[in-house]
Amino acid sequence: MIRTFARRALGLLLLGCVASSAGAADPVPRERAEYFEKHVRPLLIAKCESCHGAEKQKGGLRLDTKDGWQRGGDSGPVIVPGDPDKSRLIQAVRHSGELKMPKEKLKDAEIATLVRWVKDGAIDPREEGPRRIGGITLDDAKKWWAFQPVRRPDVPKSTFASPIDAFVGAKLAGKKLGFSPAADKRTWLRRVTYDLTGLPPTREELDAFEKDSSPDAFAKVVDRLLESPHYGERWGRHWLDLVRYADTAGDNSDHPLPHAWRYRNWVIDAFNRDQPYDEFLREQIAGDLLAAKGPPEKYASRVVATGFLAMARRFEHDSDKAMHLTHEDGIDTIGKALLGLTLGCARCHDHKYDAVSARDYYALYGILESSKFSFAGCEAKQQPRDLVPLMPQEEWNRVVKPHQEKMAKVDAELRANTETEMKHAKAVLAAFAKHRKTLSTGDIADGGEKRLPATEIDVKAGEVVFLSITPHKNHGADTTLVEFEIAELDGPGRTWNATADLIGDLLAGNPHKDGHGNESVWWLLDARNQPMPLAEPVRDVNGKPGLHAWRNGDTPSALVNSTRSDIAAWTKLPARSLFLHPAANGNVALAWLSPTSRKVRITGRIQDAHPGGPDGVGWVLEHFAVDVRADLAGMTKAAEQRAELARQRAELARTAPRQDVAFAVVDGQPADARIHIKGDPEKLGDPVPRRWLEVLGGQRIATPGSGRLDLAGWIASKDNPLTARVMVNRVWLHHFGKGLVPTPNDFGTRGVPPTHPELLDWLAAEFVSSGWSIKAMHRTILLSECYRQASAHRAAAASVDPNNELLWRFDRRRLSAEELRDSLLAVGGNLNRTAADAHPFPPESSWGFTQHVPFATFFETDRRSVYLINVRNRRHPFMSLFDGADPNATTPQRQATTVPTQALYFLNDPFFHAQAERLANRARGKPEAERLAELFRITFQREPTPRDREFAAGFLDRYAAGQPDRTGPAWAALARILLASNEFLFVE
Amino acid sequence: MKPFNRRGFVRSSLAGSLLMGGLLGDLLAEGRTDPLAPKKPHFPGKAKSVIFLFMSGGVSHVDSFDPKPKLIADHGKQVTFDHPETRNRPGYEKLYLKKPDWKFAPRGRSGIEVSDLFPELGRQIDDLTLIRSMHTSHSNHYNATLGMHTGSFAFARPSIGAWTSYGLGTENRNLPSFMVLAPQMPYAGTQVWASDFLPGAHQGTRVLPGTEPVANLRPRIAQRSQQELELEALRSFNELHRESRPEDPALAARIKSFETAFGMQTEMPDALDLSKEDDKTLALYGLQRGQTDGFGWQCLVARRLVQRGVRFVELIHTGSSGNWDSHGNMADHGRLAKQVDQPMAGLIQDLKRVGLFEDVLVVWTSEFGRTPFNNTVNNPGREHHNWAFSSWLAGAGVKRGHVHGATDEHGMRAVEKPVHVHDFHATILHLLGFDHTRLTYRHAGRDYRLTDVHGEVVKDVLS
Predict the structure, then answer these.
(1) Nearest-CA distance from B429 to chain A in Å?
(2) CATH number (domain holding residue B420)
(3) Residue A568, strand partner residues
(4) Could you list the residue range(s) of the whole structural domain that residue B447 is in?
(5) pLDDT tens, residue by residue, A353-371
(6) Could you report the per-residue pLDDT of A820-871, keeping only the tens digit for each?
(7) In angstroms, what separates the C-alpha of B160 from chain A's closest C-alpha?
(8) Which letter does DSSP use for residue B109 in this model?
(9) Among partner residues B174, B221, B327, which is closest to A614 by beta-carbon distance?
């Protein structure tokens, strides 16, 4: 372990500094130095440094220091001392190569000056500037407050019992201010209940608290709330904000993450069981590696915890190819969320302001790149992969593998069976080739339709009428509506209508029976090569009830909309219709195996049901005058065998052992990363060893594998000066509405320093010594007088400290989006308080999301809002309206905007109206005299005042005047007013 | 208790004045709580508002605004390019130049050539500045669409409309400052009009044709008088609450927001109600009386919105499918152009007619162009092409009848005075009165801007 972490960190830096200045110790020949000072330096200042100096470093190059040109720009050193022709700086000023600098060419004499200087060895007597890391000198980094070791400051002497009050009180006293009086018990209870659970207190809870006059009444409430499962739902959500939790990947097609919920629930659970924060972090960074060390009962949860890393956003059409952006998101989030450092800036260049270099960035990048991330699926590759099993490999081998082997055996038999099917199919094809009679062909323009020319033919039983649909130049939008009917012109005069015969029970079989009791009349065929029945039945395609298909892969396919209404899928699919969809590389067919030997009439209509495709489709109608029943029977038999095997397969699937997986991270191929010059992954620079940030010690990884175990250790260390400070600041922020450091994700030089530095350090020290217990931190803070203050305005205090930075009162705050929705459900009495698990995503096998038709569904729930789906590329309308977290980037603190579109929500939203109605009905269950009180108790946890009563009576009277029902609508309207009021929306 | 009376609310909302004078007025006037309060730009901008016409899918420049006789002459000639859309793509080993499907002709007094794809717009060419040297950083719909709207080709960032709203606020608090007329969802979804890290008030409000164009706009209470009574009571109840908290601007701002919302319920349907437009105006946009869809509807509504002080109106033509993405057959361009040609020409004439052309900047663009080549001589389609495309600007502060920049002889690359998306953004912001390097927002320790670290104002297009 690192004992004197910070000292050693700075020691390493100093060592580096000494080493580099030792190299510059050669005496400089005086006259050449003078030449530089007299001629070269003014030239550099006048012509170069505006773009290559302290302010700007275009191309990564600085010419205002010797070190600058020696290190060179993004493409390497620019001067070869003694050799002007090989020096890129000289080439550039001569405008002889591709790079021409400066844009306005230097005068010949000026060029000559530079050439002479380089030829003479490029002597540069400029003093080495102070050593820098990123945008800050070593000296300044050493002095930066956030990098100082956390020391427990002495608590100021005071009469306060709580050290927090002593710290805050001392600052207030310095301005001749003091705390506001304590809030009344009701106000405090409402405040602390929302604060810890995100829900309003109940009337019963208030009664119990008000009756409890014992000295530890407040402590009992805090303990009760911390034990509530709703605590984790509220505080877990703060963490989910921070780690940009989402249920979709964020790539161009926004693929679902059906396993992400495990991480969400793990976070909620971790808060509920007060998992020590250091362990909480270690598991999120290296849970898979810790899992391998046991105990077994922790295996699954630790793997799930790495969802923090896996959750990084995916990008582009093929997200595998944009992992450098995903890793940037990962490093950025690690930096801001865990360390309060903006590391992401260093992807393209050294940090402009903070002690973070591009080398630091790629040191961490190597660690992430050495890990294997679960793959979500994307437009280019629909199916997910590398999901991580929630059991050790040995157990997987023992339990899951045998099952998978059985499955594999059935699958092998299925394949063999397919070959048999194929043999018969080829025979059918050969017979068709010899006996083909083309009845009609045609083309349909994009979005167009045509009737088949009515055709009369003589058929014999066993012959085939074959309608195939041809893609033109396929771009995937060839859904074709088909109406097809064959009618006997003599004899019994039967008709066979494909839509009528297939639509009710399409998935009953392929081949499919007709409406006259004949088996195997209709065949839905993959007609790309030899005709083969479409083998894969899919119910509720894309999750659309009543949209069923037989298909082979995505296409070719035959679909029915069996419902009585149009279905909006990739295009509008009219009600009660049959569709054929050819593949990009060939036909799909509907075949009729004649059960009759008579003259028949064939009619039909073909319509390109997906306009804008951009082209239409073609059709070919053929009659094969040959009895193919024997081979078709062979195919059918094989198909029956296939059904049996499919049944066995389904049974195996039903009895399968749990094979739960997580969207998670495991170790991959360990390797150091090379710098991406200017952030371009195709321009690689030097490799950087995987190591910790230089300013925090720069230790190299010491464990085999990716290095995540080391990373976890460096971050979750009590000697890390940032980790504990950053987290206690967050706890403080969520209790008081603002952090002691007002920029919670930025403890660097661009952030705002702490208002109460000693208090911050005292809390951080306390946090670590309590065993990183977040619940202990809550108790410490919530039982202070500082937290108990009233929120009332005090003009005298406000004149000294208008923004309440010194905490002379409690800041009023608006409910968050989740609190608002959950409260509306709670007062309506219909909040489902149970935890949710997975979202009802469509099964992976049915996925076909694209940038044209991405995943974009918001699932409804009556559970708490933390369980609402978070879609990265489509903000949830309610969440977005009330400043919910951005699932694409870490959100340290919610905004609280007030805009008229929110007011429209309170005026007209159907859910809001329904909840108000429920609330009114709850109150109306009481005797009339009690109603108003009941309404106020549920909504505000208080009794109505006489003025409230006067107000309500006046309103009810006026509203009900002239209404046939004098109570119902008026009470609902009153409920709406209370729920739309500031008193409901704000916490005192 | 203060008695509440219905007259008070109605009067104040009709007058558009503050609900209450005195303290509340003072609190709100500070602008601390109102991110949409009108603000002055860095210097007086020519444009007071923007109508941004976005053609989804990628419009072919060589078939529309960028005539290339050499492309016709060299039709069928095999060429080699290391192109992002054809690199390593099976079937695209050989590439052949492909002539345009539409004829070009000089139009207007300026004689600028426009193809038969846009005959109506061609008649207005003397009012436009055509940029033939646009280029962008990505050849994928999603990324290029995101880039054209946010300046970022991968990460979620605020939209140009949100930046405009942030910079200028709005003149009409009864309507959102940034409105988006998008019947279909575009590529990259709501990110196209997101405020991202800017305050939520700056996000685009999507307007859909139909009975409820903006979420929750339609009163759910049958009688307007009942709603007024309810709002009046809400104000009274909130005032009771505020008596002991008079200093808090957040509470006051929220009370005010209900008044604004009440106004929106009237003002928004009014803005969308075309019944008072005369037949001549409707005809300009190619609209039938009573029609509430199509690009003509979008364009006329846009004019009505900028008239009412909306700062940034974006019109998206089509969406993430059924759009200008004519891989299969360029003939689709003909159908799509017909949908927008007359309405766009009508919009320009109408803006001039109502005297707004000097104050409104009209921007027309797409995510990228289309390849001047394809993999067979007779392939009827074109692929995505980010090396070159055309856009145009019209109205406030831009030259009229002017062409800026040029592509090479085949329309492959923007070679003369190239204009990257960042430069395009810098120019739009300049026209609104902003130095694009100084319109910044501090987020997570960094000052962000629409143009990131890029962008130069295209001075040549300024009048």
Answers:
(1) 23
(2) 3.40.720
(3) A572
(4) 41-217+266-461
(5) 888 999 999 999 999 999 9
(6) 999 999 999 999 999 999 999 999 988 999 988 899 999 999 999 999 999 9
(7) 17
(8) T
(9) B327
